[in-house]
Design brief:
Elements: E1 13-16, E2 23-24, H1 26-39, H2 55-62, H3 65-80, E3 87-88, H4 92-98, E4 104-107, H5 112-122, E5 129-131, H6 144-153, E6 160-164, H7 167-175, E7 179-183, E8 196-198, E9 204-209, E10 212-217
Length: 219
Amino acid sequence: MGLNGLEDRVFDAVLFDMDGTLVDSTAAVYRAWARWAVEHGVAEEQMRGHDGIPAASIVAKFLPEDQREAGILRINELELSDTGGLAVLPGAAEALAALVDAPNAIATSCTMPLAKARIAASGLAAPTVLVTADQVEHGKPAPDPYLLAAERLGVDPARCLVVEDAPLGLQAAKAAGCATLAVVTTTAREKLDADAIVGDLSEVRFEPGADGIRVRPAA
């Protein structure tokens, strides 16, 4: 299995999405948003298709401006109170371990408290750089999260590889000028637009070296 040319490139940093890329939080997310939708009179089918979008942006789609602050506080409360069933996705722990001494970061649409709660619940050893939706003016699909992650690592976004599972997250990465590797964990392969696509992180390995980081197909 090749990686459509990614294996021939050298990167200064790897930037990971979190939910759906490193951890499977699907059940917890669904439970929280399903309850929120019932409480706010939103039909369940209207909640679909928002993978990778910050909660504040989703709330803004359904509630008038004077109710949004309360709506955001409520979904944050629901998500923070439910981290049951989180699981580390295949290859995620190994990927982070391989990059422990190399520049890498997580850029997530979660808020900082929720990101820390999910990381703790999963048991992952997270990178030191963690960019969350409450740290940027515009969340995904805007490029801001990945631009800030690259800035904090002191690297050029054009020399970063982003690992994502969601179309809007990939859109954010491309807008930031990053190379993209998609994992087919939450979205059908044909809906993912990336430089290379794999089933999950167990299908690749990261190799830091003196000149940078390479990504290879797993043996």
